[in-house]
Structures are given as C-alpha cells and as structure tokens.
Specification:
The chain has two domains: about 120 residues, Jelly Rolls (Sandwich), CATH 2.60.120; about 80 residues, Arc Repressor Mutant, subunit A (Orthogonal Bundle). It is globular. The longest helix is centred in the middle third of the chain and has 27 residues. Strands 1, 2, 3, 4, 5 and 6 form a six-stranded antiparallel beta sheet that branches. A hairpin with a 2-residue loop joins β7 and β8. By secondary structure, it is an alpha+beta fold.
Length: about 240
C-alpha cells in the first residue's frame, strides 16, 4: 500500500468525544514515534491499551487459517482504537501495522479506568465511542455478507471515498494509492475477482484510474449496487 495517502476531511472516529473529554485523554496519554513497517501490537499480545493516531496511518490485519493477511481497518489521524475488556484479561485478536511514519498516543487501561471513575462526561462519551465502533464493524459485516462480491467491492470504494476522497469537479479522487491485491485483502476475495469487477465498473463509466489512483465518477451507481443505506460518514469509513 502506498504510503503517500492523503487524508480527506471526513470525520474521525473520535467525533463523539467533546473537547474537554479529548483533552483529558490527550493529557493522560504517552506518545511514541514509529516508522513505517513497524508494529504496534501482534495478535496474542495483552490488550490493555488504547491507541490514538496523532499522525500517520495504521493498518489492522487478521491472519486467516490459510496464512492470508486480511485488512480489517485503516486508522488515520484522530482515530482511537484498541480491544480492552473491562471484565477480564484480554488479548489482541489482530495485528496493528504502521504503514506510514506515525505518531501514536497510548493510553493504559488503569489510567483510562481512573479517568472514567472521576469524569462522568468522559464516561458517557467513551460509551458513545464504543457503540460507534460496534456500528462500524456491523456495517462492514453487512456489506461483506449480504450483497455478494460486487456489493462488497462497491462498499469498499464508497468507504475509501469517505475516508480519503479528494473532490475534483464532479468526480472524486481516492487519495490513497491502493492496488487490486490490497483491495482483495479488504473484502476477502481473490485479486482476480477484483480485477474483473473493476474492469466492469470502468466499462460502465463508474470509475477510472489516473496515475495510480482510483477516480470515482458516479458514486450513485456504487450506492445502488451495494444497496447503500446512507450511513453517516463516521460509520461508512474504512
């Protein structure tokens, strides 16, 4: 995946926190700088931290039984992520790979618990964030399961549009350079299937490629194919 991604003005997943809550989190976090290619954590590590991307790009992946690395999420500046459990000692289910030089803020579970006990407003915002992350996951499963491979690809293109879209007149350029194999890993299909479906979308004048970037020409057609439910952008995202 190309590292020169351009982030759009789409809403990050911490939009449900008010400014005071964000200040509380930021003032409690420690910050690390990581180079592209490094990992924040691996599946099986203790899940006792939350992470916020200050700058850069982080890919969340899952290894299949066949040894294929599937991309579950891409997190950009402003995003909060992690798998902490309040009920038992948890372990990470996924890997977190830094794919662009990044600054990552880290919040330990014991510090979060202290904040939640002493700041009711933050606790409410945190539950809103947890609900948002659940809705994002549910919407992705819906798109992958209900409307076939083509529906899954069109949903992915819409999510890329919302997360990395750059308006160009009536069209939208996806600011993240992504190849067909990487898209296949995001929707659990073969590269050959993505090649064929993209060719069909180009023939239908729904999208084109320009200098290695996908340009969406008719997002309405993509929405029709995947039976888009017009979710808000903070849900319909990578």
């Amino acid at each position: 995946m190309a590292v020169n991604a351009v982030v759009s003005t789409s809403i990050c997943n911490t939009s449900c926190f008010n400014l005071h809550s964000l200040d509380l989190l930021n003032n409690t976090m420690s910050v690390v700088s990581l180079k592209a290619g490094s990992h924040l954590f691996w599946a099986g590590d203790s899940a006792d931290r939350l992470y916020m991307v200050r700058s850069g790009l982080v890919r969340i992946t899952k290894m299949s039984d066949e040894g294929r690395s599937l991309t579950m999420q891409l997190h950009q500046a402003g995003d909060l992520f992690g798998q902490m459990s309040p009920f038992h000692e948890a372990v990470e289910s996924f890997n977190a790979e830094v794919i662009r030089d990044s600054e990552i803020a880290i919040l330990h579970q014991k510090d979060l618990e202290t904040l939640l006990r002493t700041h009711n407003e933050l606790a409410v915002d945190f539950f809103k964030w947890s609900g948002l992350m659940t809705r994002i996951a549910e919407s992705k499963f819906r798109d992958l399961l209900l409307f076939g491979k083509q529906g899954a690809l069109c949903s992915l293109l819409i999510r890329l549009h919302n997360s990395f879209g750059i308006p160009e007149g009536d069209h939208t350029r996806i600011g993240l350079k992504i190849n067909n194999s990487e898209m296949a890993d995001m929707i659990a299909v073969t590269r050959e299937s993505v090649n064929r479906m993209l060719s069909e979308l180009k023939k239908a004048d729904i999208l084109q490629e320009d200098k290695g970037n996908i340009v969406i020409k008719n997002i309405g057609s993509l929405r029709q194919i995947c039976h888009c439910e017009n979710c808000p952008e903070e849900i319909c995202r990578i």
